[in-house]
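Quick start: what a row looks like.
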Amino acid sequence: DQFAPYLLCGCDMVSPYNGTLFRFPLRNKHTASRSQLRKEEYSEEAMRGLFDSLHDEACELLLFLKNVRTVKAFVRREAGAEPELLFQAERSTAPGTRNEGAIANYISGRGGGGTASVDAFYERLEKADVRQLPLEAMRLTVHLRHGPASPRGDEVREEDWLVCSALGRGARRICEMCLKPEGRRLKLMPWGGTAARLSVSKRPSSTADAGEAAVATESAGSTPIAGRAYCFLPLPSATGLPVHSNGYFELSANRRDIWHGDDMVGVGQLRSEWNIALLQDVLAPCYAQLLLYARSLLHGPAFYALWPSSKPAEPWGSLVAAMYRLVLDQPLLRCEADGGSWLSARSAIFADGGG
Protein backbone atom coordinates (compact mmCIF):
# COMPACT_ATOMS: atom_id res chain seq x y z
CA ASP A 1 0.00 0.00 0.00
CA GLN A 2 1.76 3.14 -1.18
CA PHE A 3 -0.17 5.29 1.32
CA ALA A 4 0.77 3.19 4.35
CA PRO A 5 3.75 5.42 5.28
CA TYR A 6 1.32 8.34 5.71
CA LEU A 7 -0.82 6.63 8.37
CA LEU A 8 0.81 8.75 11.06
CA CYS A 9 0.00 11.59 13.43
CA GLY A 10 -3.73 10.95 13.34
CA CYS A 11 -3.99 10.61 9.56
CA ASP A 12 -6.01 7.51 8.60
CA MET A 13 -6.68 8.26 4.91
CA VAL A 14 -10.41 7.97 5.63
CA SER A 15 -11.52 11.00 7.62
CA PRO A 16 -10.47 14.60 6.89
CA TYR A 17 -7.02 15.49 8.22
CA ASN A 18 -6.57 19.01 9.57
CA GLY A 19 -3.03 19.58 8.36
CA THR A 20 -0.42 18.66 5.78
CA LEU A 21 2.08 15.80 6.04
CA PHE A 22 5.49 15.92 4.38
CA ARG A 23 7.32 12.59 4.46
CA PHE A 24 11.08 12.52 3.88
CA PRO A 25 12.16 8.91 3.29
CA LEU A 26 15.85 8.14 3.49
CA ARG A 27 17.56 6.75 0.39
CA ASN A 28 20.67 4.69 1.05
CA LYS A 29 23.30 3.84 -1.54
CA HIS A 30 21.56 0.60 -2.55
CA THR A 31 18.07 2.08 -3.04
CA ALA A 32 19.51 5.15 -4.75
CA SER A 33 21.23 2.96 -7.34
CA ARG A 34 17.86 1.41 -8.24
CA SER A 35 15.88 4.65 -8.23
CA GLN A 36 14.54 5.97 -11.54
CA LEU A 37 14.06 9.43 -10.05
CA ARG A 38 17.35 10.26 -8.34
CA LYS A 39 20.58 8.35 -7.99
CA GLU A 40 21.89 10.45 -5.12
CA GLU A 41 22.08 8.89 -1.68
CA TYR A 42 20.25 10.80 1.08
CA SER A 43 21.67 9.87 4.44
CA GLU A 44 20.43 10.35 7.97
CA GLU A 45 23.13 12.99 8.43
CA ALA A 46 21.84 14.98 5.45
CA MET A 47 18.28 14.75 6.74
CA ARG A 48 19.32 15.98 10.17
CA GLY A 49 21.03 18.90 8.46
CA LEU A 50 17.74 19.71 6.73
CA PHE A 51 15.88 19.51 10.04
CA ASP A 52 18.49 21.73 11.70
CA SER A 53 17.94 24.37 9.01
CA LEU A 54 14.17 24.13 9.48
CA HIS A 55 14.58 24.39 13.25
CA ASP A 56 16.67 27.55 13.01
CA GLU A 57 14.03 29.29 10.90
CA ALA A 58 10.90 27.70 12.38
CA CYS A 59 9.74 30.76 14.32
CA GLU A 60 10.16 33.15 11.40
CA LEU A 61 8.54 30.78 8.90
CA LEU A 62 5.15 31.40 10.51
CA LEU A 63 5.13 35.20 10.53
CA PHE A 64 3.30 35.91 7.27
CA LEU A 65 1.55 32.63 6.47
CA LYS A 66 -2.22 32.83 6.01
CA ASN A 67 -3.40 29.49 7.37
CA VAL A 68 -0.49 27.59 8.89
CA ARG A 69 -0.20 28.10 12.64
CA THR A 70 1.94 25.14 13.73
CA VAL A 71 4.93 23.29 12.27
CA LYS A 72 6.02 19.96 13.79
CA ALA A 73 8.96 17.74 12.88
CA PHE A 74 8.94 14.06 13.82
CA VAL A 75 11.45 11.24 13.49
CA ARG A 76 10.51 7.58 13.06
CA ARG A 77 13.57 5.53 13.86
CA GLU A 78 12.36 2.22 12.40
CA ALA A 79 9.42 0.72 10.56
CA GLY A 80 6.40 0.23 12.78
CA ALA A 81 7.68 2.52 15.53
CA GLU A 82 5.72 5.54 16.69
CA PRO A 83 7.09 8.86 15.41
CA GLU A 84 8.91 10.92 18.04
CA LEU A 85 8.62 14.68 18.17
CA LEU A 86 11.82 16.52 17.26
CA PHE A 87 10.47 20.05 17.65
CA GLN A 88 7.41 22.16 17.05
CA ALA A 89 6.85 25.86 16.43
CA GLU A 90 3.44 27.33 17.17
CA ARG A 91 2.15 30.82 16.50
CA SER A 92 -0.53 32.59 18.53
CA THR A 93 -1.93 36.12 18.58
CA ALA A 94 -2.15 38.35 21.62
CA PRO A 95 -5.49 38.39 23.47
CA GLY A 96 -7.89 40.97 22.08
CA THR A 97 -6.58 40.84 18.51
CA ARG A 98 -9.55 41.75 16.31
CA ASN A 99 -8.34 42.12 12.76
CA GLU A 100 -6.42 38.89 12.20
CA GLY A 101 -7.43 37.42 8.86
CA ALA A 102 -9.08 40.63 7.63
CA ILE A 103 -6.99 40.66 4.44
CA ALA A 104 -7.48 36.98 3.61
CA ASN A 105 -11.21 37.32 4.29
CA TYR A 106 -11.46 40.31 1.95
CA ILE A 107 -9.61 38.51 -0.84
CA SER A 108 -11.69 35.35 -0.52
CA GLY A 109 -14.97 37.19 -0.10
CA ARG A 110 -15.69 35.59 3.26
CA GLY A 111 -18.11 37.56 5.37
CA GLY A 112 -19.30 39.73 2.50
CA GLY A 113 -21.18 37.22 0.41
CA GLY A 114 -18.51 37.24 -2.30
CA THR A 115 -16.66 34.43 -4.02
CA ALA A 116 -13.04 33.36 -3.80
CA SER A 117 -12.05 33.68 -7.48
CA VAL A 118 -9.37 36.13 -8.55
CA ASP A 119 -11.80 37.82 -10.95
CA ALA A 120 -14.27 38.32 -8.10
CA PHE A 121 -11.50 39.89 -6.00
CA TYR A 122 -10.67 42.33 -8.81
CA GLU A 123 -14.35 43.28 -9.05
CA ARG A 124 -14.41 44.05 -5.32
CA LEU A 125 -11.16 46.01 -5.61
CA GLU A 126 -12.49 48.03 -8.54
CA LYS A 127 -15.50 49.16 -6.49
CA ALA A 128 -13.64 49.69 -3.23
CA ASP A 129 -12.69 52.92 -1.52
CA VAL A 130 -8.92 52.40 -1.20
CA ARG A 131 -8.97 54.25 2.12
CA GLN A 132 -11.13 51.46 3.57
CA LEU A 133 -9.13 48.47 2.35
CA PRO A 134 -8.06 46.14 5.19
CA LEU A 135 -5.11 46.74 7.48
CA GLU A 136 -3.79 44.27 10.06
CA ALA A 137 -1.59 45.04 13.04
CA MET A 138 -0.94 42.02 15.24
CA ARG A 139 1.29 41.10 18.11
CA LEU A 140 2.33 37.48 17.69
CA THR A 141 4.04 35.03 20.00
CA VAL A 142 5.88 32.04 18.54
CA HIS A 143 6.88 29.16 20.82
CA LEU A 144 9.59 26.73 19.76
CA ARG A 145 9.51 23.55 21.86
CA HIS A 146 11.74 20.48 21.68
CA GLY A 147 10.49 16.93 21.89
CA PRO A 148 11.91 13.61 23.12
CA ALA A 149 13.84 13.06 19.88
CA SER A 150 15.68 16.39 20.14
CA PRO A 151 19.31 16.54 21.27
CA ARG A 152 18.70 20.14 22.41
CA GLY A 153 17.04 19.24 25.70
CA ASP A 154 13.74 20.65 26.94
CA GLU A 155 14.42 24.35 26.30
CA VAL A 156 11.51 26.48 25.08
CA ARG A 157 12.21 29.53 22.97
CA GLU A 158 9.57 32.25 22.90
CA GLU A 159 9.68 35.10 20.41
CA ASP A 160 7.42 38.14 20.53
CA TRP A 161 6.73 39.82 17.16
CA LEU A 162 4.83 42.80 15.84
CA VAL A 163 3.45 42.32 12.32
CA CYS A 164 1.72 45.01 10.26
CA SER A 165 0.16 44.15 6.88
CA ALA A 166 -2.10 45.92 4.41
CA LEU A 167 -3.99 45.27 1.21
CA GLY A 168 -3.39 48.42 -0.84
CA ARG A 169 -4.86 50.65 1.86
CA GLY A 170 -4.74 54.23 0.66
CA ALA A 171 -2.61 53.18 -2.33
CA ARG A 172 -4.53 54.11 -5.45
CA ARG A 173 -1.57 53.75 -7.83
CA ILE A 174 -0.86 50.12 -7.00
CA CYS A 175 -4.55 49.17 -6.99
CA GLU A 176 -4.87 50.61 -10.49
CA MET A 177 -1.84 48.56 -11.58
CA CYS A 178 -3.64 45.41 -10.39
CA LEU A 179 -6.76 46.25 -12.40
CA LYS A 180 -5.02 46.81 -15.72
CA PRO A 181 -5.13 43.89 -18.20
CA GLU A 182 -1.43 43.18 -17.63
CA GLY A 183 -1.91 43.19 -13.86
CA ARG A 184 -4.88 40.84 -14.07
CA ARG A 185 -2.93 38.50 -16.31
CA LEU A 186 -0.08 38.35 -13.79
CA LYS A 187 -2.64 38.04 -10.95
CA LEU A 188 -1.05 40.93 -9.06
CA MET A 189 -2.31 41.61 -5.56
CA PRO A 190 -1.44 44.72 -3.46
CA TRP A 191 -0.61 42.76 -0.30
CA GLY A 192 2.44 43.44 1.84
CA GLY A 193 3.69 43.93 5.36
CA THR A 194 6.57 44.19 7.79
CA ALA A 195 7.52 42.31 10.96
CA ALA A 196 9.74 43.32 13.89
CA ARG A 197 10.93 41.08 16.69
CA LEU A 198 10.24 42.66 20.07
CA SER A 199 11.88 40.15 22.39
CA VAL A 200 13.28 36.64 22.76
CA SER A 201 13.10 34.54 25.92
CA LYS A 202 14.37 31.06 26.76
CA ARG A 203 13.33 28.75 29.56
CA PRO A 204 13.16 25.06 30.42
CA SER A 205 9.86 23.53 29.36
CA SER A 206 9.06 22.62 32.98
CA THR A 207 9.06 26.29 34.01
CA ALA A 208 7.19 27.29 30.85
CA ASP A 209 4.38 24.87 31.66
CA ALA A 210 4.25 26.15 35.21
CA GLY A 211 4.11 29.75 34.02
CA GLU A 212 7.30 30.76 35.79
CA ALA A 213 9.60 33.55 34.73
CA ALA A 214 11.89 33.12 31.75
CA VAL A 215 15.48 32.17 32.41
CA ALA A 216 16.75 34.77 29.95
CA THR A 217 14.97 37.53 28.05
CA GLU A 218 16.46 39.78 25.40
CA SER A 219 14.82 42.85 23.86
CA ALA A 220 14.82 43.87 20.21
CA GLY A 221 17.82 46.14 20.66
CA SER A 222 20.04 43.34 21.99
CA THR A 223 18.83 40.73 19.48
CA PRO A 224 18.60 42.54 16.12
CA ILE A 225 17.45 40.55 13.13
CA ALA A 226 18.94 40.59 9.67
CA GLY A 227 15.95 41.68 7.63
CA ARG A 228 14.91 39.35 4.83
CA ALA A 229 12.52 39.49 1.92
CA TYR A 230 9.45 37.30 2.12
CA CYS A 231 6.89 36.19 -0.39
CA PHE A 232 4.87 34.78 2.53
CA LEU A 233 7.77 32.36 3.06
CA PRO A 234 11.30 33.74 3.50
CA LEU A 235 13.54 34.19 0.48
CA PRO A 236 17.33 33.83 0.71
CA SER A 237 17.60 37.56 0.07
CA ALA A 238 18.82 40.06 2.68
CA THR A 239 17.29 43.54 2.63
CA GLY A 240 19.70 45.42 4.90
CA LEU A 241 16.77 46.42 7.15
CA PRO A 242 16.16 45.63 10.85
CA VAL A 243 12.69 44.26 10.00
CA HIS A 244 11.38 41.56 7.68
CA SER A 245 9.56 42.67 4.51
CA ASN A 246 6.77 40.58 3.02
CA GLY A 247 4.94 41.18 -0.22
CA TYR A 248 3.09 39.70 -3.16
CA PHE A 249 6.29 40.25 -5.10
CA GLU A 250 7.19 39.28 -8.62
CA LEU A 251 10.19 37.01 -8.15
CA SER A 252 13.31 36.38 -10.20
CA ALA A 253 13.45 33.24 -12.33
CA ASN A 254 15.32 31.28 -9.63
CA ARG A 255 12.86 32.54 -6.95
CA ARG A 256 15.71 33.73 -4.74
CA ASP A 257 15.14 37.48 -4.99
CA ILE A 258 12.51 39.99 -6.05
CA TRP A 259 12.49 41.19 -9.65
CA HIS A 260 14.12 44.59 -10.05
CA GLY A 261 16.21 46.64 -12.47
CA ASP A 262 16.08 49.86 -14.49
CA ASP A 263 17.16 48.33 -17.80
CA MET A 264 14.13 46.14 -18.51
CA VAL A 265 11.38 46.30 -21.10
CA GLY A 266 8.01 44.65 -21.60
CA VAL A 267 6.80 42.27 -18.90
CA GLY A 268 10.15 42.49 -17.09
CA GLN A 269 9.73 46.24 -16.74
CA LEU A 270 6.17 45.81 -15.46
CA ARG A 271 7.31 43.31 -12.85
CA SER A 272 10.08 45.62 -11.67
CA GLU A 273 7.71 48.61 -11.49
CA TRP A 274 5.21 46.51 -9.57
CA ASN A 275 7.75 45.59 -6.91
CA ILE A 276 8.82 49.21 -6.50
CA ALA A 277 5.19 50.29 -6.16
CA LEU A 278 4.59 47.55 -3.60
CA LEU A 279 7.60 48.68 -1.57
CA GLN A 280 6.67 52.37 -1.68
CA ASP A 281 2.86 52.24 -1.52
CA VAL A 282 2.21 49.24 0.76
CA LEU A 283 5.31 48.20 2.70
CA ALA A 284 6.48 51.72 3.55
CA PRO A 285 3.13 52.65 5.21
CA CYS A 286 3.18 49.28 7.03
CA TYR A 287 6.69 50.03 8.30
CA ALA A 288 5.57 53.48 9.49
CA GLN A 289 2.53 51.95 11.20
CA LEU A 290 4.73 49.32 12.82
CA LEU A 291 6.92 52.04 14.35
CA LEU A 292 3.85 53.85 15.69
CA TYR A 293 2.68 50.69 17.42
CA ALA A 294 6.16 49.73 18.62
CA ARG A 295 6.77 53.02 20.45
CA SER A 296 4.38 51.90 23.23
CA LEU A 297 5.99 48.44 23.44
CA LEU A 298 9.70 49.26 23.35
CA HIS A 299 11.75 51.99 24.97
CA GLY A 300 15.01 53.77 24.30
CA PRO A 301 17.59 51.96 22.15
CA ALA A 302 15.32 48.94 21.66
CA PHE A 303 12.77 51.13 19.85
CA TYR A 304 15.30 52.97 17.71
CA ALA A 305 16.92 49.66 16.76
CA LEU A 306 13.87 49.12 14.52
CA TRP A 307 14.80 52.15 12.40
CA PRO A 308 17.07 51.78 9.36
CA SER A 309 20.51 53.08 10.31
CA SER A 310 21.51 53.62 6.67
CA LYS A 311 19.98 53.44 3.22
CA PRO A 312 20.27 49.89 1.87
CA ALA A 313 20.87 48.91 -1.74
CA GLU A 314 18.02 49.12 -4.20
CA PRO A 315 15.25 48.24 -4.44
CA TRP A 316 15.06 48.36 -0.63
CA GLY A 317 16.42 51.90 -0.57
CA SER A 318 13.17 53.09 -2.18
CA LEU A 319 11.24 51.53 0.73
CA VAL A 320 13.36 53.37 3.28
CA ALA A 321 13.05 56.72 1.47
CA ALA A 322 9.26 56.35 1.24
CA MET A 323 9.00 55.33 4.89
CA TYR A 324 10.99 58.34 6.10
CA ARG A 325 8.78 60.67 4.07
CA LEU A 326 5.73 59.15 5.78
CA VAL A 327 7.08 59.46 9.34
CA LEU A 328 8.31 63.03 8.94
CA ASP A 329 5.14 64.35 10.62
CA GLN A 330 4.51 61.38 12.93
CA PRO A 331 5.27 61.65 16.68
CA LEU A 332 7.99 59.03 16.80
CA LEU A 333 10.88 60.82 18.52
CA ARG A 334 10.95 60.78 22.30
CA CYS A 335 11.79 64.02 24.10
CA GLU A 336 12.18 63.89 27.89
CA ALA A 337 11.93 67.66 28.37
CA ASP A 338 8.97 69.01 30.38
CA GLY A 339 7.85 65.61 31.58
CA GLY A 340 8.39 63.80 28.30
CA SER A 341 6.48 63.71 25.02
CA TRP A 342 6.62 62.28 21.50
CA LEU A 343 7.57 64.69 18.72
CA SER A 344 7.69 64.52 14.95
CA ALA A 345 10.98 65.01 13.14
CA ARG A 346 9.59 68.16 11.53
CA SER A 347 8.77 69.76 14.87
CA ALA A 348 11.85 68.57 16.78
CA ILE A 349 15.03 70.54 17.33
CA PHE A 350 18.10 68.33 17.08
CA ALA A 351 21.08 69.12 19.29
CA ASP A 352 24.53 69.23 17.77
CA GLY A 353 26.03 65.79 18.32
CA GLY A 354 29.57 67.14 18.42
CA GLY A 355 29.76 67.04 22.20
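That is the whole record. The first helix runs from residue 29 to 34. The radius of gyration is 23 Å.
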